[in-house]
Amino acid sequence: MKGFVRFIATLLLFAISTTGCFTPPNYSPVPEIGFNSIDKFEVIEPFSQAKQDSVVITINFKDGDGDLGESTDNRTNAKYDTWGNYELKTFRRVSGNQYQEVNLAANSKLFFPVLKPDGKKGPIEGLLDYAVYFPYSRNSKLTTVKFQIKIRDRALNVSNVIETDTLSVPLLL
């Protein structure tokens, strides 16, 4: 019995000593992003029953103080001048490796929600998905596109810019 108690006490001490050893990562307060993946799904728009492509872009993110995302109440704040906290630029292939930016109304002033809702300052990292839709119509043409993305935090620190792989979507030209 004495050996069993000693074994349990040793196990308990080991468990306590290993749980207190976590050192949080030391990330910059300026967000950093990386390209993870891009996927396309054909979907039916529920109201009009029209066919459209849903493009889901997944990025990796790291932020040292965890102030990524914005509440719906603060999204009209004047500090977000021409773009929100997620900037998505669409580029269509015009020939070879030459691309031209396409201004899409759906890409203006984009936001993603607060990623650390407890409000505590500290490092966070993870994946962020964003979906953009491209409806099919008689006037659209399958076009090769790629996207450029950057994000910013609530302190207006702007991340690096990343670029996605290419894919084809219906575009009105």
What does this structure look like?
With 173 residues, the protein is mainly beta. The chain has one domain (26-172): Immunoglobulin-like, CATH 2.60.40. The chain has one helix spanning 2-19, and strands at residues 32-44, 51-63, 86-95, 98-102, 124-135, 140-151, 162-163, 167-172. The strands form 2 sheets. Strands 3, 4, 6, 7 and 8 form a 5-stranded antiparallel beta sheet that branches. It has a 3-stranded antiparallel beta sheet with strand order 1-2-5, with no helix packed on it. β3 and β4 (98-102) form a beta hairpin. The longest helix is centred in the first third of the chain and has 18 residues, at 2-19. The radius of gyration is 23 Å and the shape is elongated. It starts with a helix and ends with a strand. 16% of the residues are buried. The model has no long low-confidence stretch (mean pLDDT 89).
List the topology elements.
Layout: H1 2-19, E1 32-44, E2 51-63, E3 86-95, E4 98-102, E5 124-135, E6 140-151, E7 162-163, E8 167-172
Antiparallel strand pairs: 1-2, 2-5, 3-4, 3-6, 6-7, 6-8
Summarize the structure.
By secondary structure, the chain is mainly beta. The protein is built from one helix and eight strands. A hairpin with a 2-residue loop joins strand 3 and strand 4 (98-102).
